[in-house]
Amino acid sequence: MTLQELRSQIDEVDNQIITLLEQRVQIAKQIGELKTKLKVEVYNPQREEEILKRLQSISSLSPAQIEMIYQSIFTLTKVLQEENQ
C-alpha cells in the first residue's frame, strides 16, 4: 500500500470521527439543557470515570491514551453544557 493510499484511509476515518463527535456534541447539549431544567451540576466526575473505564475495557489503546483523548472531549462538552446554565 502506498503512502497516499494510507493517508486517504486516515482521511476517511477522520471524517467519520468528526461526524461522530458532532453527534456527541449535540447529545451533550441536550444533556446540558436537561441538567439546567433539573438544576443538576454540569460536572460529574463519576460519570467521566465510568466512561473512561468502559472505553478502556473495550480498546487496545492504553488507559492513558484514552484518557488523553477523552479529557479534551469532556472539557468541550462541559463548556457547551455550562453555556446553557
Describe the structure.
The chain contains three helices and no strands. The chain has helices at about 5-40, 45-60, 65-85. Helix 1 (about 5-40) crosses helix 3 (about 65-85) and helix 2 (about 45-60) packs antiparallel against helix 3 (about 65-85). The protein is flat and about 55 Å long.
Which word captures the global form? flat
Percent of residues in beta strands? under 5%
The helix count comes to: 3
Give the termini distance in whole angstroms. Answer: 50 Å
Strand tally: 0
Radius of gyration: 16 Å
Structural class: mainly alpha
The overall average pLDDT, rounded, is 95
Helix content: over 70%
Listing every helix as H and every strand as E from the N terminus to the C terminus, the arrangement reads HHH
Specify the biggest β-sheet. none
Unreliably modeled segments:
none
